[in-house]
TrEMBL record:
GO terms for molecular function: metal ion binding; protein-glutamine gamma-glutamyltransferase activity. This is Coagulation factor XIII A chain. Residues 266-359 form the Transglutaminase-like domain. Factor XIII is activated by thrombin and calcium ion to a transglutaminase that catalyzes the formation of gamma-glutamyl-epsilon-lysine cross-links between fibrin chains, thus stabilizing the fibrin clot. Also cross-link alpha-2-plasmin inhibitor, or fibronectin, to the alpha chains of fibrin. The active site is at residues 274, 333, 356. It catalyses: L-glutaminyl-[protein] + L-lysyl-[protein] = [protein]-L-lysyl-N(6)-5-L-glutamyl-[protein] + NH4(+). One of its GO terms (biological process) is blood coagulation, fibrin clot formation. Ca(2+) binds at residues 396, 398, 445, 450. It is an enzyme of class 2 (transferase).
Length: 688
């Protein structure tokens, strides 16, 4: 038996600069093992104890995953040697023979399970099959392949693949429709242990192994496991401005800390709000190789009873009754889009799919949402799985102002059809600018196609109360609008209300302005400004009225997004008609300045400083600073006890960048009086 074939060594060419990781676009992963993408050949060398004789020697490879590998479930894969490789199917062929070694080109199936496989080489001998011993060195990760035409996540544009799969930083758009703000987010999908943490999420969600080659299933279970509701998932949400025993959502600068903490503690990380759920979800998708982008919808409707109508109920004075009003309009809401084919739907509904990890409503008994085809939402085909009616309502609801009469009936006072889903944006490909994608979700407001899409959605069972069954005559004589002056945190500003009397009548109005501090979800915390006034409106004329908001009125009450919501209601005394309007506004928050000193070379120490000047008239206490940059430094944290009014804080850090190229540093500052303070800096790290 001494002369049978015996495996001495296996070489996987798994270094970042070697052939496999280069060809498979996996050279950025900070992971020593072999990482390849499915449906694309990779190279392996096997050293035997003697030259291989194809006439008499017989050997094959085995890839195994999970505890109970079975061939029919795709968890035990024998790979036989053949003369040709068929595209998208498992196989191996010998490309080179020299002395005792052979080189193989191995093709994986374009629909195979995504995860970490164990590799064995089996040799047939007359005395039985001899397998190489178990070795974690030869473990191989197989990921989705957007570069492979047979893969369900194939994306044909190289620039888009570089952005949606390989870019490890992104932009979150927040603020509101009249004042769009942006901040950077570090996805860090290539950082150490992140790939394992992302694969662990599928274990946590108990997704059966055979489903892990299917991006639809992966998105569905991931949208549930990203939030902690009902399954102890990754992030616990908190929207009430108290973040005891946790990190305030606004303090996070990226996904890496959150995923690594969850991977080690197995307990939900506190706390997140929509952009945190979306940021971590994006890391998960890009890490596994599913093209993904983070999307922000301004004025997103959270419609509790999904009737495409957000009911704001007014009391006798024309104020919104917060106890009866259950629906809300979020200033903005972030979700994700993932790119894939939808073989479970009719042709034409593949491409971008909405997936949302923020827990808003349950779907099939769990807090999850998606994947829902963006194309289906645009055309009103909301009958197609999953959760399309909910997303349709988020971008298409009408705001209806109802007045509660003494006898309990509700009378429609006003309908606003264009407030919800006014603007939908994402980061542009290859740059930090904003790209509008509203057109992907809906036709032009008021167009014939938009009506048709709505009628289609209604036909497919989206509930909508028609306004015909209630007496509603809109009031056309007088137009009302109001503008909120842009203001910096800590200063006074004014609200200007304008009336335009288009009739030939002389009117008097009683107007009421209510200023509320709101969470970005549109839920009111409290009313800080009440102001009533009477106005005379001359025929065919416009008149304007200013209301001053003092800093002292709002500073003590402010929440972490510094957002206000103004309601103006006015009653025309002569006709009894009511005008109602609402707008959100966000204060300008000062930013952090990041600077670097000296030369920046990979492998050499460099220095970074973060500066901040306190804009408030009070001392800031217990201020936390965070700084991170994928490939440059791990997240650093520092606590400052106090920053007196108008004084400047300076924090200097030394770090050693790992990778050359264009990198981004992202910083955040957080304390109870001031949140959502960010800074960023693009830096070029030179090759040593």
């Amino acid at each position: 038996p001494a002369d049978y074939l015996h495996v001495v060594d296996i070489h996987l060419f798994k270094e970042p600069q070697e052939v496999n990781k280069q060809q498979h676009h996996t050279d950025k992963y900070y992971n020593p093992k072999l990482i390849v993408r499915r449906g694309q050949p990779f190279q392996v060398q096997i050293d035997f104890n003697r030259p291989y004789k194809p006439e008499t020697d017989q050997f094959w490879l085995e890839y195994l995953i999970g505890r109970y590998p079975q061939q029919n479930k795709g968890t035990y894969i024998p790979v036989l040697i053949s003369d040709v490789l068929k595209p998208g199917e498992w196989g191996a062929k010998i490309t080179h023979r020299e002395n005792n070694s052979i080189q193989l080109s191995i093709m994986s199936s374009s629909s195979c399970i995504v995860g970490k496989f164990r590799l064995y080489v089996a040799v047939w001998t007359p005395f039985g099959i001899l397998r190489t011993p178990r070795s974690s060195e030869t473990d191989t990760y197989i990921l989705f392949n957007p570069w492979c035409q047979q893969d369900a996540v194939y994306l044909d544009d190289e620039k888009e693949r570089e952005e949606y799969v390989l870019n490890d930083v992104g932009i979150v758009f927040h603020g509101n429709i009249n004042d769009i703000k942006l901040r950077s987010w570090s996805y860090g999908q290539f950082e150490e242990n992140i790939l394992d943490a992302c694969l662990f999420l599928m274990d946590k969600a108990e997704l059966e192994l055979s489903g892990r080659g299917n991006p639809i299933k992966i998105c569905r279970v991931a949208s549930a496991v990203i939030n902690s509701r009902d399954d102890n998932g990754v992030i616990a949400g908190s929207w009430d401005n108290t973040y005891t025993y946790g990190v305030a959502p606004s303090a996070w600068t990226g996904s890496v800390d959150i995923l690594l903490e969850y991977y080690s503690s197995k307990q939900p990380v506190r706390y997140g709000q929509c952009w945190v759920f979306a940021g971590v979800f994006n890391t998960f998708l890009r890490c596994l190789g599913i093209p993904a982008r983070l999307v922000t919808t301004y004025s997103s409707a959270h419609d509790n009873n999904a009737n495409l109508q957000l009911d704001f109920i007014l009391d006798d004075e024309g104020k919104v009754d917060t106890k009866l009003t259950k629906d809300s309009v979020w200033n903005y809401h972030c979700w994700n889009e993932a790119w894939m084919t939808r073989p479970d739907l009719p042709v034409g509904f593949g491409g971008w799919q909405v997936v949302d990890g923020t827990p808003q409503e349950t779907s099939d008994g769990m807090y999850r949402c998606g994947p829902a085809s963006v194309q289906a939402i645009k055309h009103g085909h909301v009958c197609f799985q999953f959760d399309a009616p909910f997303v349709y309502a988020e971008v298409n609801g009408d705001i209806v102002y109802l007045k509660k009469e003494k006898n309990g009936t509700q009378v429609i006072e006003n309908i606003d059809t264009s407030h919800v889903g006014q603007l939908i944006v994402t980061k542009e490909v290859g740059g930090d600018g904003m790209m509008e994608i509203t057109e992907e979700y809906k036709f032009q407001e008021g167009s014939e196609e938009e009506r048709l899409a709505l009628e289609t959605a209604l036909m497919y069972g989206v509930k909508k109360q028609t306004t015909q069954d209630t007496t509603y005559q809109p009031q056309r004589d007088v137009e009302m609008d109001f503008q909120v002056q842009k203001a910096v945190l800590g200063s006074d500003f004014k609200v200007t209300i304008t009336f335009r009397n288009k009739s030939h009548n002389y009117y008097t109005v009683t107007a009421y302005l209510s200023g509320n501090i709101v969470f970005y979800t549109g839920v009111t915390k409290n009313e800080f400004k009440k102001h009533s006034f009477n106005a005379k409106l001359e025929p065919s004329a416009s008149s304007a009225f200013d209301v001053v908001i003092k800093a002292s009125e709002y500073l003590g009450e402010l929440l972490d997004q510094a957002s206000f919501h103004f309601f103006v209601t006015a009653r025309i005394n002569e006709t009894g008609k009511i005008l109602a309007m609402q707008k959100a506004t966000v204060l300008e928050i000062p930013s952090l300045r990041i600077k670097t000193k000296g030369e920046m070379v990979a492998g050499k120490e460099m220095s970074v400083t973060v500066e901040f000047t306190n804009p408030l008239q009070e001392t800031l206490e217990d201020v936390t600073l965070r700084l991170e940059g994928p490939g440059v430094l791990r997240t650093m944290k520092k606590l400052f006890r106090q920053i007196p009014a108008n004084s400047t804080l300076i924090w200097e850090i030394k770090c050693v960048p790992k990778r050359a190229g264009l990198r981004k540093l992202i910083a955040s500052l957080n304390c109870n009086a001031l949140r959502h303070v960010y800074g960023e800096l693009n830096i070029q790290i030179q090759k040593p």
